């Protein structure tokens, strides 16, 4: 009985107001292909981040790591470099951007595709993105450790990116 209470207690995570929680599922079917992110609850890093508040993730199955919520400091811009997506076309120096990517907050849309100009489907591309992120005043999910987003200063981002393998923000 005591073991069950401790297990449930350890499965409750308090994500602070300036943090996000990166979930890594320990068990499940393997990720398809070379995709480093789980969209369908496979084993590995999950596409959805835990937002601030009390969150429950069963300890034996999920591990949660907290990261600072990415914020672009005033007077600076954030350069997004995606490590997932389609390869850049030959000769391209930066990736195509469309508003459907939502400032890189929707990882699923970035990887799967969104409707672009003229109704054509556009998938996110690896590499430097054309859109740069600007200071917004309040913490927001601009580039979460989740899929393709999480911003603080470059050193902090590196830790999340090394773990998550999705996005790198440089200031």
Report on the structure:
With 171 residues, the protein is α+β, with helices and mostly antiparallel strands. The chain has 2 domains: 15-68; 77-170, no CATH class. It has helices at residues 2-10, 107-112, 154-164, and strands at residues 12-15, 19-25, 37-38, 44-46, 53-56, 62-68, 77-82, 114-115, 121-122, 127-134, 144-146, 167-170. The strands form 4 sheets. The chain has a 4-stranded mixed β-sheet with strand order 3-4-2-6, with helices on one face. The chain starts with a helix and ends with a strand.
Key attributes of the depicted protein:
171 residues; four-stranded mixed beta sheet; three-stranded antiparallel beta sheet; globular
How does the SSE layout of this entry go?
Layout (H helix, E strand, L loop, with lengths): L1 H9 L1 E4 L3 E7 L11 E2 L5 E3 L6 E4 L5 E7 L8 E6 L24 H6 L1 E2 L5 E2 L4 E8 L9 E3 L7 H11 L2 E4 L1
Parallel strand pairs: 3-4
Antiparallel strand pairs: 1-5, 2-4, 2-6, 7-10, 7-12, 8-9
Q: Which range best describes the helical content: under 10%, 10-25%, 25-40%, 40-55%, 55-70% or over 70%?
A: 10-25%
Q: How many domains would you count in the coordinates?
A: 2
Query: How many strand segments?
Result: 12
Quote the distance from N terminus to C terminus. Answer: 50 Å
| Coarse morphology | globular
* Quaternary structure state of the chains depicted: single chain
SSE order, as H and E?
A: HEEEEEEEHEEEEHE
Radius of gyration: 17 Å
Largest sheet: 4 strands, mixed
Q: If you average the pLDDT, what whole number results?
A: 78
Unreliable segments of 5+ consecutive residues: 140-171
Strand content: 25-35%
